[in-house]
Amino acid sequence: MLEEADVRRKLKRAYQMLLFQRYKAPGVKGWELKRVLGKDYVKMIPILREDLEKMGLDLKIISERGENIDESSIEDLDKARFFIIFKEPPTQTEIEASGFRIDDLACLAASLAYIITHKGKSPRKDVEQLLKEKFPQWKVDLNLDRFIQKGYLLQDKDDILYIGWRTRAEIDQKTLLSLLLASPTSINQDMK
After folding, report:
1. Vertex 176: Cα angle to 170 and 182 (nearest 5)
2. Which residues of the chain have a pLDDT value below 50?
3. What is the pTM of this model?
């Protein structure tokens, strides 16, 4: 009984770490979970996932390169980022609680769609030019910087924008493009 209580105490601490954003990115690194859960923390990942699934959430594990990995890649887990996402697409209320305004999300969707359709990279000035057709310059600069800071976009020293690790983790890129390319009539039918 004492062992089960100890496991539950460790799991509770892991959930707290996963839920609170530290620094600029959500979640925690694998080595941080290892410190709390112990050296066999990989064995507790299925328990974390099962508990989160009951609440409509999922545990996402992303490598340093922004790729999805699972717990079978033990050598990469210490450096990987663990964080919680919605299992299903978020509702309007959940989107509003995210801290993004609807026009910010439109700016993100347009930026991602442009970059995706340009083989995953594009000069920042090209993305800015596209966004300036619908948004004021100050909003374009503010949003692009925020998307980079939060990990949705990456920018190299040559001002080339790429899809960020957080986009790879949280956004189904194929669905995003199909929704943007679909007619309004078909979108309404899909949502019913």
Report:
1. 160
2. 1-2, 186-188, 191-192
3. 0.72
